[in-house]
Amino acid sequence: MMKKAKLVAHHDDPPCTARLTYGRCNRCNLIPDMQSICLYAYCPKCDCSLTKMRCPGCKQTFKSHETLPPTLPPTFTVGEMLNLLTDAAKIFHKETLVLVKRNRHMNDLSEKDFARLKRRKKLTQRLIEALLVQFINEIGARQNVDYGLYAKDLKEN
Ligand SMILES: [Zn+2]
Ligand SMILES: [Zn+2]
To answer: pTM higher than 0.70, yes or no?
Structure first.
């Protein structure tokens, strides 16, 4: 039977992700409130943080903790988040215009605008891809990650 990881509270107030001792962040010298706390899965033996539920110390793989409350913020790394966005963009770029048109109550584009965009279909598509790539790279840059996504990457599987 696979062992269960233990949960350890960390400060979750970017850029601080320091481990808490008795609820206190020694780096920031304060006791963060619940919204600024994130629980990390740890190896109970080595007392270190797991990578994809695997202990970098003893190499054991652990079962995810079932008692995790559903409201717990997921512990995504920035890289995982950017990959998630890229995966979504790979599908989304193919139907952006259709979706944006369907939800035009949420944007400022008119029927006329859509007619224009459709007339210049290839240009429109290149702009959509450029915007998606730019946006995802921007999110990375704000987290100090040089993600380097290119428009051509959206067409790869
Ligand atoms: Zn802190
Ligand atoms: Zn271990």
So the answer is: no
Q: Ligand 2 center to residue 111 CA distance, Å?
A: 60
107-117: string of b/e by CB count within 10 Å (b at 16+)?
Answer: eeeeeeebeeb
Q: How far is the CA of 36 from the centre of ligand 2 (A)?
A: 27
Shortest-distance ligand to the CA of residue 58: 2
Q: Is the dihedral of CA 112, 116, 117, 121 positive or negative?
A: positive
For 35-63, the pLDDT digits (tens) are 888 888 899 899 999 998 999 999 999 98
Tell me the pLDDT band of 70, cut-offs 50, 70 and 90.
Answer: very low
Beta bridge partners of 54: 51, 61
Pick from 43, 39, 40: which is nearest to 3 by CA? 43
Range of 17-21, 35-39, 54-58, 78-82 with top mean pLDDT? 54-58
Among 91, 100, 83, 53, smallest CA distance to 147 is for 83
If we measure between CA atoms, which residue out of 97, 82, 103, 52 comes closest to residue 147? 82
Cα distance between the two ends of the chain? 36
